[in-house]
Amino acid sequence: MKLKLLLLCFIGNIVSMTAKHPNPIPATKAPGSISGKVIDKKTNEPLPFVNITILLNNKVITGGVTSEKGLFFFKNLELETYKIEVQFMGYKTVSKIISLTDKNKSLNLNSIAIEEDAIELKSVEIVSEKSIVEQKIDRKVINVGKDLISAGATAAEIMNNIPSVSVDPQTNAISLRGNTNVKILIDGKPTNMDAAQVLQQIPSASIKQIELITNPSAKYNPEGMSGMINIVLNKNTKIGFNGSVNNGVTFAITPKVNSSFDMNYKSGKFNWFANYGLNHGKYNNNGNIFTTESGEEDIQKYVFTDKNTSHLAKVGFDFYWNEKNTISFYTNQNFFDAKGYSETYIDFVNQQDINQLFLNAVDNLGQTYNLDYKTNFKKEGHTLELEINQNNTKNIEDAAFYIYNPKTNYIDTKGNNTLVNLDYVNPISESSKLELGLESRIESTKNKFKVDEIPNSDFVFDRNIYSAYATYSKQWGKWNIQAGTRLEHFEAKAVFNKEDESASFNTNIFNVYPSAYVNYSPSEKNSFNLSVSKRVDRPSINQLNPIREWSSPQIDSEGNPALQPQFTYSYELNYTRKLKNGSITTGFFYRRINSEITRNLYENPNDASKQILSYANLNDNNAYGFEISSTLDFAKWFSSNISLDAYNKKIRGVVSDEAVSADVTALNARINNTFKATKNLRFQLFGMYRGRDLGLQLLGKPMWKADLGSSLTILKGNGTVTLKFSDLFKTMRYRFTVEIPKDQYGQFNWESRSVYVGFNYRFGTGKNKAVQRKTRDTNETQGGGFL
Prior knowledge:
5% of the residues lie in helices and 64% in strands. The protein is mainly beta. It has a 22-stranded antiparallel beta barrel. The radius of gyration is 28 Å and the shape is globular. The relative contact order is 0.12.
């Protein structure tokens, strides 16, 4: 209660700070004024919402944006010599030196013509020709293009081609730097859906950008030991009517369709935008496990067939109320339908064989509603922003098992997530900045389980998180520092009911999460970055939920309600070297993990012939590794994106009451080569190697693949045809060996070899990007309230 009162007082202080005469009125008004009009140099058309800054002795005196007719007017200026800067995204910056004197107090600059910047315009295309990997101070950004990296059916296929990221081909479980404790965001917002489900549902054609934030600052929610992955969906803000249509088909064992439509209309004070993506197809997987343990020999065969259909729509608008205030709204609507069939056959040498059939139907609805209001004060960069985000999900699974007698399972899961952010930014001086923020997060999940249409159990999980953060950044010459702290109060309660038994737990935790960044740039070509942060991994609903997640003839998977959070202290050092033909970034990281959460396999107390796969807290642990990534242009016709990462981790767990501990060093490498044959024709050769990986029970063997693709630009640059051959040599398969609890080996296969054919068409009249209305204009995780 004290924290809630503190948050209310904090909001009141911010409001009072901004309300108490942010623009003091001088005793006597200065006599000078400057006016003018900004136009496009090529078309002579007026440009609205262009940034105009007035400086005196390199210090910002005032500023604003042009009106809808491109006009600007500044009054009450002292009679001095000023520098005026005209800045607009997609255009070259124009600077002028002007003087106000007794003879010329009112200066009309008439028309100022600015011209397009080819380099800038390239970065604001609806879809660029090739994916570009950018290394920023606190994140790695992959701008998704129409090339080999992004061509595919789902987000999971894109993720597998991204440096430092791995996706399990069977479960779609995602890991960053070898760790599955990663937070997945959609447009910088949390989602109630499981990460594996998210990757399966989002069509690749709907993705604009992917951000890897491995060591977030105090501005961000501290969840996720290995960091955050933010998936940014397409949104366009060009002036006029613009859009693109993307259609693709993947031919494998069965064809899969991937399509999207993106459009916007920007006129006057409104910008309307919409995006729709469709993903539909059938997926086939199979595998074998051979048990060689003496006296327990068996052969297990698995066949999986899934038919999935996903619809993802994003609709919204920006309303430029006036030069200082902007209101934005959007909604994401996701409809997912899946029907699955699997067959498990176990040939026991000394016992009766088992043949299990499994049929399931999944119906999932995800809805997000986001409202944002931002106000800009007189001083450049001085802002206050309020954001409200509501996320609802509903997931129904209707399954049937057939071994000797049919058995049905019905699981109904509902989730609600309400997020409120208040962010305040104040540039104290040209070299320092203060950022403050508040966040309230209310979550609720309800899960009901029926067996053979009879209620079996239910699980209700509620958690509330209230937090406040403050960060301060300062620049001294070649040095740039940022330090911050996040205060967080966490409340959670859960109730589990099953027939005649019930259990519940409550927890209240207050914690402090500090972070610090130091950046040193001795020259334009060299940059060093050191970051330190404290993070937390709270058990997810799937890890806590004692209701079974999946079941096989020998193993049931379920959560552990007694799980406790694990805390991580993360340290990271990066060095970026700019070259004549590109750049190279090298990074080192170290993590100290307390009360690590890991998998736990033990005997089923109700059936000695089966086992339960769950989760448990173990002792402290360490993990460390390094990464190297580069973007190099070897010639005008040949460029490469190359990445290499290696990490060491210690595996700890309990299998059949036996402690398991082992060290493993994993190595991954990726290379994407682009060959420009002509102005409109490109070829790409992509290669990936994933080294061996040690899990709780098994050792995964190395795998690799090679892809070949090409893209052809047609229709006067408005259309692009893409062709991609995946896994040319059919080498992608998951092979493994097991020693505990028994000696086994096996292999799982999926539709890795495929051919993708896609066509993208862009249309529209506008060439110029609209005003950057807010820090989160691209839905990047920039603001303090984002998770």
